């Protein structure tokens, strides 16, 4: 009798292992890419991600350079922040910068079809259209940052829709031929204006 009970428990355990091997619980993977420092908003992100309320499994992965010591200190205290894997494997990118010249990581993200959480700082609205291919918040608005994180972590359909919009927008606005045409106009229009004088 005792042997039959043990055998039954072993079979149950093996069946659960097999089930989770076939259908693993997927974590929502959120990425930050940029220089570590206050200007990029990475400290706000780590703090808010730790305090946000999620009903699903999630993971924040960060990569960059800059003020590495403070970053490592915050990462060590965080239960949810880890080092980076690959951008394409993430569900969305967060870059809550206070100031920015362009933000190449945003361009990379939308090119991969990832929705983005970022700020209204500088040129970000050129890459991210608020509530279309991501969320834009005011720099330093940690309440809005928390809400955007919670919405995108919990709503897979919205992530997929915004990701599709991100890829389509990237194809329309920032593919190589369009950027080349814009640069060409920057240089040729002043020359044409000078010729008319």
Secondary structure: elements and pairs:
Blueprint (H helix, E strand, L loop, with lengths): L1 H21 L5 E6 L8 H10 L6 E6 L4 H10 L3 E3 L8 E4 L8 H8 L4 E4 L4 H4 L6 E4 L4 H13 L1 H18 L2 H21 L1
Parallel strand pairs: 1-2, 1-4, 2-3, 4-5, 5-6
Helix pairs in contact: 2-6, 4-7
Question: Brief description of this entry?
Answer:
By secondary structure, the chain is an alpha/beta fold. It is 53% helix and 14% strand. The chain has a six-stranded parallel beta sheet with strand order 3-2-1-4-5-6, sandwiched between helices.
Question: Whole-number radius of gyration?
Answer: 22 Å
Weakly predicted, low-confidence segments = 14-25
CATH class identity:
Alpha Beta
CATH topology tier name: Rossmann fold
CATH architecture: 3-Layer(aba) Sandwich
| Helix percentage range | 40-55%
Q: Kindly estimate the percentage of residues that lie in beta strands according to DSSP.
A: 5-15%
Based on secondary structure, the structural category is alpha/beta
How many distinct helices? 8
């Amino acid at each position: 009798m005792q042997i039959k009970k043990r055998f039954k428990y072993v079979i149950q355990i093996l069946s659960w292992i097999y089930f989770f091997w076939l259908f693993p619980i997927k974590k929502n993977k959120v990425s930050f890419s940029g220089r570590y420092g206050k200007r990029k908003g990475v400290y706000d992100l780590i703090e808010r991600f730790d305090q946000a309320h999620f009903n699903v499994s999630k993971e924040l992965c960060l990569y960059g350079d800059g003020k590495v010591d403070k970053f490592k200190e915050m990462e060590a205290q965080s239960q949810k922040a880890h080092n980076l894997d690959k951008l394409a494997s993430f569900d969305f990118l967060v870059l809550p910068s206070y100031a920015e010249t362009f933000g190449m990581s945003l361009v990379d993200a939308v090119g991969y079809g990832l929705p983005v959480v970022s700020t209204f700082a500088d040129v970000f609205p050129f890459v991210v259209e608020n509530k279309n291919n991501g969320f834009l918040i005011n720099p330093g608005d940690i309440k809005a940052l928390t809400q955007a994180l919670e919405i995108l972590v919990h709503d897979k359909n919205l992530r997929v829709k915004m990701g599709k919009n991100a890829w389509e927008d990237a194809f329309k606005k920032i593919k190589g031929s369009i950027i080349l045409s814009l640069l060409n106009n920057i240089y040729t229009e002043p020359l044409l204006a000078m010729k008319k004088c």
